[in-house]
């Protein structure tokens, strides 16, 4: 499974630098000099990081072979991706990566099937997107009170929703 770790934005300057919307907790590792990063669409990469710096809270990257503003502009909107197998599991038992949650079966504390996690949204409050059979998708806040149990080995998570959420 491919995980998005960044999105190339507008060019910066005339030498081919690009702005990057960082979508990883570890940009220093993912965008280190010499790192080859896969892309989506695939035909735009892989891209090799030639240099990087932060400017006013925005990551600027120079990429091998991208030497002018026009070449940088052609990369605008390109997603920078890694394989999920390259992500080390967290040491924190209450911390999960999105790709670990997507695909889990969702059931209530009483064992009633609810659906399957299809996405995780990060909008101030993390939300699990749950596809339900015969019903609209449900958005469940990803907090311990509502999601008391996650069993990755069994491929399921338990929800304890307040009345009306589902």
Q: Overview of this structure, please?
A:
The chain is mostly beta strands. It has 3 helices and 12 strands, in the order ββαβββαβαββββββ. It has helices at 27-30, 69-74, 98-101, and strands spanning 2-12, 17-22, 36-40, 47-55, 58-63, 79-83, 105-108, 113-123, 125-131, 138-141, 149-151, 156-159. The strands form 2 sheets. Strands 1-2-5-4-3-6 form a 6-stranded antiparallel β-barrel. β1 and β2 (17-22) form a beta hairpin. It starts with a strand and ends in a 7-residue tail after the last strand. The model has no long low-confidence stretch (mean pLDDT 87).
Quickly describe the structure:
With 166 residues, the chain is mainly beta. It has three helices and twelve strands. The radius of gyration is 19 Å and the shape is elongated.
Helix-strand string: EEHEEEHEHEEEEEE
How many E-type strands?
12
Give the helix tally. 3
**Strands in their spatial order, largest beta sheet:** 1-2-5-4-3-6
List low-pLDDT spans: none
Give the overall silhouette.
Answer: elongated
User: How much beta, percentage-wise?
Assistant: over 45%
| Overall pLDDT metric | 87
Helix content percent band: under 10%
The span between the termini is 29 Å
Class by SSE composition:
mainly beta
Indicate the radius of gyration in whole angstroms.
19 Å
